[in-house]
Design brief:
Structural class: mainly alpha
Shape: globular
Helix content: 55-70%
Largest sheet: none
Strand content: under 5%
Radius of gyration: 22 Å
Number of helices: 5
Number of strands: 0
Order of helices and strands: HHHHH
Oligomer: single chain
């Protein structure tokens, strides 16, 4: 029995060494840009297209693809807002970011299928999610613009 326990412990330790050898330290996602960077360069431009798709129906294949790609960018940028030091709290911040992922995904799927039905509602949902988040986390938005030196949202 003692021999089996020693064998089991050795096997566990060896497997831990093997796993750590497969994943060099420092690899994996790391935060480079700030929330402000993501908002200015990714969220704002993509959300403008997504919000606009609800107001004016895409007409050409190129229009639909533009909406789809911007909806994907909006969803993926929300994933970035759930990384590392960008996370403001584990409650509403994550809830709003996940809702933005879902809203972007919904618009992307509708655009890929070129479905007008539901596009306005999905676009409105994305807008409502952004507005709700901004109301909580960007309290001084009326006095501070994203392109100023203000680094927090």
């Amino acid at each position: 029995m003692v021999r089996f326990v020693k064998f089991a412990v050795g096997a566990v330790l060896l497997s831990g060494v093997m796993v750590s050898a497969q994943q060099p330290a420092g690899e994996g996602p790391r935060v480079v840009g700030s929330v402000r960077d993501i908002m200015r360069q990714m969220v704002m431009p993509s959300s403008d297209v997504v919000f606009g798709a609800g107001a004016e129906e895409p007409k050409t294949d190129a229009d639909w693809e533009k909406v789809r790609l911007n909806a994907v960018q909006l969803a993926e940028s929300a994933n970035l807002l759930m990384m590392g030091s960008r996370v403001r709290d584990r409650g509403d911040w994550l809830k709003f970011a996940k809702a933005t992922v879902d809203a972007g995904d919904a618009v992307a799927k509708l655009a890929a299928a070129k479905k007008v039905d539901g596009l306005s509602d999905a676009s409105d949902k994305a807008y409502e999610t952004c507005t709700t988040c901004h109301n909580k986390y960007w309290a001084d938005r009326k006095s501070t613009r994203l392109n100023s030196s203000h680094t927090d949202i």
